[in-house]
């Protein structure tokens, strides 16, 4: 886009586009103090909107009504949405980029809210999943705590020199161990990883770059490929800002697919997994700045089980 604008401004300008594009990506990837301040403000205001949405969520409310509460809070802070909000109740949460936001929330469901604002063009990107009625059921809590464990482990790994592939492999391993404990996966961890059976429950990457776009530009680094499904194979550097967002989903189109059932018969308990379709999915996402020795989490929304339940019941 930047190169196209240059051509329009100076049609006779001659330059090599590829090196220029690479240079622009490098500049955008590492944030200045001012850029980080704008992203921190976007994350803080978006976090406040998430907390408000938790308190407003209740059975009988439409997904789009909760979206309106969220966006009103963003506007109060002078922000606009950085992307179309995903407000997904129950089985809708199994759709990664669900956009209808028209269903009515019901007691006993969880709601996945993936929404955030931008400040002077700099985006936040936050997801929380919480029980509409104020308390997780046993099954919901078991799945939620597996995802939370993976997310906390990923954030703990963030530092200069770590790769996004490292974060993805950590997430995959923790999610697989959790699903094996619950009997949704079967066999050995090595066999599950070799067959990539986790992709039926976790079909996306754990991280992407964040900045002037929600899925921001990056330079692909040459790193050992430990994991798949990644948008960006990147060596983390100080003042990169990334998301950390593992998830688990129960997707009808995958779990009822006969070809996949045959391929993963030895490692997936399909009969049990199909009983979880009403749960939908769980994703937990925060915005994380890489610091000189570790990380700073810019977003600040409750995510421990008791904290989440308390935040929802406040409404």
Kindly summarize this structure in a few lines.
With 315 residues, the chain is an alpha+beta fold. Helix content is 41%, strand content 12%.
Cα Rg: 20 Å
Largest sheet: 3 strands, antiparallel
The poorly predicted ranges are none
- Proportion of β residues? 5-15%
Strand order of the largest sheet: 1-4-5
Helix content: 40-55%
Question: What distance lies between the first and last C-alpha atoms, to the nearest angstrom?
Answer: 44 Å
Instruction: Estimate the mean pLDDT confidence.
Output: 94
Could you tell me the number of beta strands?
11
N-to-C order of helices and strands = HHHHEEEEEEHHHEEHHHEEEH
The secondary-structure class comes to alpha+beta
